[in-house]
Amino acid sequence: MVPLKVLTLVVAGQNQPSVLVLQPEEETPAGKARIVPIWIGPTEAAQIGMALEHVKFARPMTHDLMLDALTNLDARIDSMVIYGSKGQMFFAHLILSQGGRLITLDARPSDAIALALRQDAPLYIEEAVLDASSFPFLFKGEKQTEEELAAFKTFLDHISPEDFGDIEQL
């Protein structure tokens, strides 16, 4: 299994899917970095965004309620693993720890990631899934030129969900 981190979350408009971009935490030679884009709905994007920004509301949201239930059952999220893909649909396991045993739950990656982020649990992807579903990511460090930033913005402006498969399968 390869450890993952959230590289970015691109939140689209109300009726458009958003994209969660994951990246392996592995050390890679220059020009060999990879990313895994996962298309998600607006509600899932909002939940992940709130987890990334540590946003808390006066009343619990659905994922907060789930974590509260787990806590009251003396369980904790151990990790999240993306274990498979079919086309552009991904499959994940949410691994819980309770009383010294591990419990594996089938989950959508977006839900599993939103929950794992809230408990600072690690994110993983199976190596075969990473190899099959990742794209090269060229990053030259922290100093991008205006030209490089403009080229990336143009890429984002012209990318569409159809480039990655059918979001309706989710």
Automatic annotation (TrEMBL):
> Boundaries of each BFN domain copy?
1-137
Coiled coil segments of this chain: none
Q: Which domain of life is it from?
A: Bacteria
Alphabetized GO MF terms: nuclease activity
Q: Which Pfam families match?
A: BFN_dom
Check the record and name the InterPro entries matching this protein.
Answer: BFN_sf (IPR036104), Bi_nuclease_dom (IPR003729)
Q: Which protein, by its recorded name, is this? A: Bifunctional nuclease family protein
Native species = Adlercreutzia equolifaciens subsp. celatus DSM 18785
